[in-house]
Design brief:
The protein is built from 17 helices and 53 strands. The protein is of the alpha+beta class and 923 residues long. Strands 2-1-3-4-5 form a 5-stranded parallel β-sheet, with helices on both faces. A 4-stranded antiparallel β-sheet has the order 6-37-36-35, with no helix packed on it. Helix 10 packs parallel to helix 12 and helix 12 runs parallel beside helix 14.
């Protein structure tokens, strides 16, 4: 539960964020929605749940908020729950539109800058007034709402000391704010009525037991054998009562786990620094709750909680200005604030070499094959990455450099113009003189031409130019004069497009170098970000940092804006993967994040202790690098990116035609079979160990067997159900030949999964004479891929998500019909899925050229979450979320609060004595 929920209009966002920080600095737990997303049913449900779980609602009244339908709905919901409302007036042209629940209240007036602290003090004073009454109001309301949502299930009612305290609070609530709601009264009175009935039943039971005892005593004098029989019956009843009590304790434990899971799932929305606490609550929820809610919450946290590989330190708290990696992401070069270029091994953090040039003009650029590193500057050097020795050839003072896509040529921008070198011999192919040196170059087309972006000559006010030169020879083939004043920011690696920023907040321009014209006018760009425009290595994607502090993703093939990625604080740097599918961002919110540029999904988040001044992304998007500004923590932290969710691994193998995935019997290898061959990949190393051009032979044979089973739309189960006897039921479905290859049978031969033209996958049970026990509906004209776990207890299928245009993995426990595991959505189609032999992992072979490995077991999820954490719950967090239960370290081996250390020994000496507050009341 939060102390304060802040209701505000998006147009009052800056003041709301400032108030949020001020209240947080004074020890208040704030819930504020900072995500600028369109309202939806799920989003409004989250807002209402946050209001229910908050003690006080602070309303920022302005002309914007009183006219906002969303703000009105928040106030109406809070009033219906009798929440304490604290209106803060930001200045209203008229108070006629102020909602009725706020008119009769005393307002806090927000004055100018000098009065801000006074306003905050008044709000804090109001929050602290009768805090015990407000906390009890919120605590009882949360349990009443849960009781109402569960159909007024009597098992959710109060009893014991909880009921007595609630009745005392209700008796004293008259005249206090907030007042008790009808739901409060009904919940407390219902609890008392239930308690009364329970006491009467107990009294009657006691009387009956006493009568039986008297009768038994009489009969004991007459017949000893009858007394022994009765004593045995009493013992059995006592055992049943003990079993019932244990069941009640288990139910209370599961309720606490579900509550912790919900709190963990909502915490990341309150700010990036709450991720560790959310992960710890998710672990506690998983240990108590066996439902899919706890599993979903844990995977939600795991999807954005980073896995730290190594930490690199710069000398004297230097600044990381920019970064560049080799194509495989194994080596990174960093340009520091002192002008030095430092090269590190990305997997270990070991420093490989230092290039000291106080006029270095870049982090060092690697060739496409990773063989060479060039460090532009006054003392330009080219290094062999195998030995880290410079080549002996003398190079001129270089302001910028670029390798050709094939890596066979190197283009240098010098004070005189350009030089083009052949990397095989470092022979100079051409020297091109320019009156004004270009700012950036790229190779264009199959004719081996060079595109150069030439800046403004501001003294003569000459227009900027895009010039095309032929190599060898260096002749000027074409010149495009770009009218107006502007600055060249980026040229695409294929030389086809160039970005030019205008001044005075005018739209930027995307130039087509082939057509010598403006392709499109872009949005005005931000001047706060060092890199305001960037192309992906394959030139398919353009990222722009605009004045709205958002990253705009442009598809260069269609020239349409594909996505807008929001950022809370000003950006400090951006970096794109080679294919433009992922982008890394860093800024003043002290976080570095990686996003999916197709759907805007946040893939990973790393929290730093300072402003993130530089980010890097390996070309394949598997590794993020982030650097802090002036911090003792040094350059930054290398993070394994968890793409699309909580994978245990991701294996790149390239795009294949109709791939199918399977595991070796010992689980040490993964095989990717496709129409033209087969790959063998070591697990968990992820390295391709074998490749053949001959497709797997057993696949077609397996499909022929399935086609025989389903001949003429009936199931001849004689072979399939060998262990259960001959059964020949009619499936009653119409099949098309194109669906046959998707049929799957469980390893124990009990279940058969059959895709149908009705966009469903139906699972039949041979022991139930072919009854359909499960049907999974698809939302597209293509059937899903299906698989059974090795123990035949879990069935997995893929289905199309029409909203996010991806595939959703769904896991169902058999023979029941309850969905157990919520695996994340992939933005690409899933062509094949397979369980590992021990059932601990699921491999999903995707159309984007990657196979993703998912954890399935609950204990593995807990272990993975624990591995990524660096602390346990604090004393305040434990008391807030788990109450007075004996302290148990969530992750053994990590630091624990000093004040909790005395409680650890008692728990370790008697683990069975641990009970949660809910369990205690159940007893």
């Amino acid at each position: 539960m939060a102390d304060v929920f802040i209701s505000y209009s998006r147009k009052d966002g800056p003041l709301a964020q400032r108030l949020n920080q001020a209240l947080a600095d004074r020890g208040k737990d704030i819930w504020i929605d900072l995500e600028d997303i369109p309202p939806s049913a799920e989003w409004m449900q989250r807002i209402r749940a946050a209001i229910d779980g908050s003690s006080t609602i602070v309303v920022l009244l302005s002309d914007h908020s009183v006219s906002s339908a969303i703000c009105g709905e928040e106030i109406a919901h809070a009033a219906s729950r009798q929440k304490r409302l604290v209106p803060v007036s930001l200045g209203l042209a008229s108070d006629a539109a102020v909602p009725e629940p706020l008119r009769r209240l005393n307002w806090i007036i927000a004055g100018g800058e000098d009065a801000f602290e006074a306003m905050v003090s008044r709000i804090v004073e109001t929050l602290d007034t009768d805090l015990a009454h407000v906390d009890a109001h919120t605590r009882i309301l949360v349990r009443a709402v849960e009781w109402e949502a569960r159909g007024r299930d009597p098992s959710f009612l109060l009893r014991g000391s909880d009921l007595r305290e609630a009745e005392q609070w209700l008796a004293q609530a008259g005249g206090k704010t907030p007042s008790a709601t009808d739901l409060h009264t009904q919940y407390i009175h219902g609890s008392r009525a239930r308690q009364g009935r329970r006491l009467r039943v107990l009294a009657y039971s006691s009387m009956i037991a006493l009568a039986i005892s008297i009768v038994l005593a009489v009969f004991a004098f007459l017949k000893r054998e009858d007394a022994v029989v009765q004593a045995q019956s009493a013992m059995i009843e006592n055992q049943r009562a003990t079993t019932a009590l244990k069941s009640a304790v288990s139910s209370a434990r599961q309720m606490l786990g579900a509550k912790l899971a919900v709190q963990a799932e909502f915490l990341p929305a309150t700010g990036p620094k709450t991720l560790p606490r959310a992960a710890l609550l998710a672990i506690e929820g998983l240990r108590r709750d066996s439902s899919s809610d706890a599993d979903r919450a844990a995977r939600h946290i795991l999807a954005i909680l980073p896995r730290t590989r190594s930490l690199i330190h710069l000398d004297n708290s230097d600044v990381a200005r920019s970064m560049h990696t080799t194509p495989d992401g194994g080596i990174v070069s960093v340009l520091t604030g002192s002008g030095a270029v430092i090269v590190f091994d990305a997997s270990t953090g070991v420093k490989l070499t230092t290039i000291r040039d106080r006029e270095a003009r870049g982090p060092g650029i690697f060739s496409p094959d990773g063989k060479w590193l060039i460090s532009p500057g006054r003392a330009t050097q080219i290094y062999d990455t195998a030995t880290w020795k410079p080549i002996p050839e003398a190079l001129p003072d270089t302001s910028s450099a670029a390798f050709s896509p094939k890596g066979d040529r190197l283009m240098l921008i010098t004070a005189e113009g350009m030089s083009v070198l052949e990397t095989a011999t470092w022979r100079r192919l051409a020297s091109i003189s320019c009156a004004i040196p270009p700012t950036m170059v790229a190779e264009y087309g199959i004719g081996r031409s060079i595109v150069a972006a030439i800046p403004e000559d501001r003294r003569s006010n000459a227009p900027a130019m895009l010039a095309v030169y032929t190599v060898p020879g260096g002749e000027q083939a074409r010149v495009t004069r770009c009218e107006g004043v502007g600055e060249w920011l980026a040229v695409s690696p294929d030389g086809r497009h160039a970005v030019r920023a205008a001044f005075d907040d005018k739209p930027a321009q995307l130039w087509d170098t082939k057509e010598s014209r403006i392709a499109i006018s872009l949005i005005p760009l931000s001047r706060n970000c060092p890199v305001r425009a960037m192309f992906s290595a394959d030139s398919s994607t353009l990222a722009l940092v605009a004045l709205d502090e958002c990253v705009h993703i442009i598809d260069t093939a269609t020239l349409f804006e594909r996505l807008i990625i929001p950022q809370v604080e000003a950006l400090g740097a951006i970096a794109l993967s080679s294919d433009g599918a992922r982008i890394a961002t860093g800024g003043y919110d002290d976080t570095a994040r990686v996003w999916n540029t197709h759907d805007g999904h946040e893939l990973v988040r790393q929290t730093h202790g300072d402003y993130v001044s530089a980010v890097g992304l390996s070309p394949d998007g598997s590794t993020m690098l982030s650097g802090m500004n002036m911090s003792n923590d040094g350059l930054g932290i290398f993070v394994d990116i968890v793409v699309d969710g909580s994978e245990d691994g991701i294996i790149p193998h390239g795009k294949l035609d109709f791939p199918r995935v399977s595991w070796s019997e010992d689980g040490s290898q993964i095989r990717i079979a496709h129409d033209t061959g087969e790959l063998t990949i070591a697990w968990p190393a992820g390295q391709i160990t074998g490749r053949t051009s001959k497709p797997a032979s057993d696949y077609e044979g397996r499909q022929r067997m399935y086609r025989e089973i389903l001949a003429h739309n009936t199931a001849e189960f004689d072979r399939w159900a060998a262990n259960t006897g001959p059964v020949k039921p009619d499936l009653g479905i119409t099949l098309d030949r194109e669906y046959h290859e998707y049929i799957a049978a469980s390893p124990d031969n009990r279940y058969l999964a059959v895709p149908t033209p009705a966009f469903r996958v139906e699972v039949f049970d041979a022991q139930e004479r072919g009854a359909c026990i499960l049907a999974v509906t698809h939302e597209a004209n293509t059937p899903g891929v299906v698989a059974f776990s090795p123990d035949s207890a879990l069935f997995v299928s893929t289905s199309i998500d029409p909203i996010r245009h991806g595939c959703l993995l769904q896991a169902h426990e058999l023979p029941g019909r309850q969905q157990r595991i919520h695996l994340p959505i992939s933005t690409f189609g899933i062509a094949g899925i397979a369980f590992s032999p021990d059932g601990s992992h699921l491999a999903a072979c995707c159309d984007d050229g990657y196979t993703r490995i998912y954890l399935l077991r609950r204990e593995d999820l807990i272990a993975e979450l624990s591995h990524r954490l660096r602390r346990n719950l604090t004393a305040n967090e434990w008391q807030r979320y788990l109450g007075a239960a004996p302290y148990e370290p969530t992750v053994p081996g990590l630091p624990i609060p000093v004040e909790m250390q005395g409680m650890i020994g008692a728990f370790e000496s008697n683990p069975g004595a641990y009970t949660s507050p809910a369990e205690s009341s159940a007893k």
